[in-house]
Amino acid sequence: MGNKFIVAFDRTIVKGARWVMGPVERIALFIVFFWFGFLKLIDASPANPLVADLLERTLPFWSFESFVVFLGMWEMLIGIAFLLEGWERFAIALLVPHMVTTIMPLILLPGVTWQSFLVPTLEGQYIIKNVVIVALALSIAARLKPFRRS
C-alpha cells in the first residue's frame, strides 16, 4: 500500500514540476538579468568595479559610464527576451557573448577572482555561478522546435 502512495505522489510531483518548469525558468532568467542590468543603469551594481577593471584591460578606449549603460541595457534585454515566448533564440544569441565576456575576469583578473588555486573570491564565485545560467538556457533551447526547411 505504501509503495503505491509513494509512486503516485512521485508522479504528481514530477508532473507538476514539468508543468511549471518552462515559466519558472523564464521568470528566473528574467529576474536575474533584468535586475542586475537595472542595478548597472542606476550605478548600484556591486559588479561595477569588476566591470571597470575588465573594461580597462580589454576596451580602454570605451568610457566606463557609457559601457556600463550599454551592458545594463544588454542584460535587461536578455531578461526581457527570455520572458517572451518565441524570443528564446534571440535571448540565447545575446547570452552567448555576455557569458564569454563574464568569464574573462577569471583569466584576465586572477587577483580579483581567485584567492588561491581553485579557491575563488566572492567575485569569482559570482562568475562561476553562471554555469547554472548556461545550463538553464540550454534547458530552454533543448525544448525549442527546430526550424523547418522551406
From TrEMBL:
**TM segment ranges:** 20-42, 62-84, 91-114, 126-144
Keyword Membrane, does the record have it?
A: yes
List keywords of the entry alphabetically: Membrane, Transmembrane, Transmembrane helix
Q: What is this protein called?
A: DoxX family protein
